[in-house]
Description:
mainly beta; Porin; 14-stranded antiparallel beta barrel
Amino acid sequence: MRGWKMVSGLLVLLFTASTSFAGGFRLPEAGAKAMGMGFAFTAQADDPSAIYFNPAGLTQLTGQNVMLGLTYLKENGAEYNGTTPVDDFTTGFTTKKSETQKTLNFYIPNAYYTYTTKDGYISYGVGIFSPFGLGQEYNNENNDSVFRNQITKIDLKTIVVNPTIAFKVNDVLSFGFGIDYMWGQAKLAKTPWNPNLGGNIYNLDLKADGDAWGYNFGVLLKATENLRIGANYRSAFNLELKDGDVTLANINNSPTAPGVGLGGGSVSQVFFGGKSSFSTNGNATIYLPATFALGASYTMGKLTMNADADWTFWHSFASLPISFQAHRPPVLVDSNAPKEWKDVCAVRLGAEYRVIDPLSLRAGFVYDPSPVPAGTMGPELPDSTKLDYMIGAGYKIGAWTIDIAGMYVDKKSRTVNNQHNATLTGFNGTWGGGENSWLASLDVGYKF
């Protein structure tokens, strides 16, 4: 009972902390020890974050364990130079423009509780972490951004609660599985623009939340005294955001161009009864991908070396459907933007050296390819291939364990030409400069 009371306390703490949100779409920052080793942790999985990285690893723990952690992320804004289908309609959208993402700060929480029976054959626990998230804002305001007709701000945060159980079959084989409950919230802002409707039509803000269920399982094989092989699968989530709040403000009161069926009136007069603001409800579905990791861990004396191949099955993110309860064609219509993201495999390498009994030093590297095809890349996530470099350390003080890690993300520049003037989407230009990120992670654990 004592352990489950602690779990309740962790839930309250984590849901409070989750109001601060991390950038990026997939977030593997679920443990500082794993981060210090390049997230190549599937076959090692020897701390409570095994609930996320490989639940079969829980059988390597003893007694009761609690671990709390937080990762700080500083996301430096990138600069865009090129054309977009907004403003210069009369010249065919050929004017070169620039736009800069805001530099943002985020916080990614994690917490774990585990218990292993005295005979070591059964382990169970619960983990709380944020596996996906997206944060993007632009320096120019809603009415001035060169991307305003597509996006000016987007926020996606998720929290997963993951009850888990693991079984040790024998000294060679363990397996584990869990149920995942996800709660998510999305915010989106944009300013639709159309030269035939007087330029900026309105400022749109959408906020919605919802939930989804998933599952995960893992296997750990101790092939030899020094070699371990692990595998971990996490299912996809269909995160349905229902009955969200949609607000339209600053509705255009300027007379529209003739020939668009408005009778010479303004958007506000014809569609919203002269109102400068309007509210309705909206729905969206975000198809979050399944993941699979296969790893190996080899120990030679004080040194452990790990390697993982980590697949993210982004093909599930084929589109982003958004619907509204109230419709005012052609100014407020449902959308289903194609995404058609690709499955990718990241390569993760890590090492740990136990200097003395309480102190360990770690290092890692990740090659992380982008799943975003050039044809559908948008300003909500102008993604590119990344190289990640990590260092970390761990120290034990009695029943306490402290793990720290630092990470530098080198995001490559990318040029895309997918502008569609007829639909007023896409852009032709290059993203680059100042788009790298820094992360720092701290976990504190206690064994009962």
